Amino acid sequence: MSEQSTSSFKALDWQRYLIRVGAFLVALVFVAIHLDASPSQAQLTHLVWLLPLLHLLPAQRPLFSSEKTLLLLSCGLFFGALISFAVSGDLWVETGFRSYWQYLLPLGLLAVFARIQLDRRWLAAIAMAAMLMTLVVVLKDLRAGDVRGIHHGLPIPFGIVSLTTGLICYLMVLDSRFHWAVRVLLLLAALMGFVATVWSQTRGVWVYWLLWLLVAALAWWWLDRRTWRKTLVLSVTAALIVILGLSNSATVTARVGETMNSLNEYFVEDNAQTSLGQRFELWKVAWQTFTDSPLLGQGKAGFMATKEAMHALGETSASLWLQHAHNDVLWVLSTRGLLSLVFYVALYAFLISFFARHCSHPDTRLAAYAGLTVSFGGLVYGLSEIFLSLKITIGYFMIVQTVLVSYVSQCAAKRSLNTAAGAASPVE
Fold first, then answer.
1. Nearest to residue 300, comparing CAs of 151, 145, 98?
2. Rounded to two decimals, what is the model's pTM?
3. What is the pLDDT of residues 343-401, one digit of tens each?
4. CA–centroid distance for 213 within its chain
5. Which end of the chain is more exposed for a tag (fewer CB within 10 A), N or C?
6. CA 375 to each of CA 234, 330, 344, 379, 398: distance values in angstroms, whole numbers, following the listed order
7. What is the rounded CA–CA span in Å between residue 179 and residue 292?
8. What Rg, from alpha-carbon coordinates, does the chain have?
């Protein structure tokens, strides 16, 4: 072998090594998101800056149109936020714009996924590892006498990622291509996520969990004609929910009762000093902030200034220490205006339509269901939280959706090639 050929092989080996390191870092950060908020958010920042360098390496394929669309819309969210915060003078505030760098995460992720073939076994292993981390958080809380995933650092995002990844594991259980032992492990992983979901006491997450189970059960019962399979899986699911509910019945009852009392106090007794009451007051502030500057919003500083002004005039009872609107759409409108809302709506519309188109094919059906689960989950979580404006949940959303878009696109491309090859082969 010539010296030039040897050098080429060595260069190729180094390129493969760097791509594998990039993929490993993505997996590591994804798992860490489920374990500890503080270091994982720092690691997300590193991914934004490091992974795009992999675009300097030769790609195995060009980006699919679906990947380009995802990248375009996520970059649109970033530049919309950049313009709004620059105009409002809030760009260099430490807690203002920093989270929105995560909108650029798909740029680096696609540098990895355009250079590897995503494997469902690899994805299943990462999801199971992430669910194991949620169990670690719960056990740490129990040992220290804490609650709600305090050892994670952010209880509400902890509940969000626990449920969402748990549902993805649950969908993977239905993949008959996996060995039965792997499917059992996936079911156990999903159960870990559901335990963490109950433990987090995040009511918005509970609402989505119930909605997902209801819609999934009805859709499956309607579409799948294999009655024995439906009965078995739905029975197991119902049993798991009952067991989880009974094991934490006091906590669940207390949180539901707190919700009903908060609604009664706000609408009947005119008392806004409850968790839900404060959310309603913050929504009023966010709407007022938006109406004062509808195109670009007023940044976080503008939201806080409006709240203080309304508080001084007695127009709101929102606590001065609360930092955001507790609603994704209203937060986007108040801080970034209609410009960013266009990209926000377009991103969700693209993801939902993309995954819906791939639900009819056996090789992409479960991945498409997972994509829809994450997409609709983001919308529901965003009703009471700033899901797509918080650093850790932006990072989680972008990683999962970029993986699923790339995986589904790769499967669809492979299917098209096989179809074309079959059509071109001579008939004997």
1. 98
2. 0.91
3. 999 999 999 999 999 998 999 999 999 999 999 999 999 999 999 999 999 999 999 99
4. 18
5. C
6. 23, 18, 12, 7, 11
7. 58
8. 23
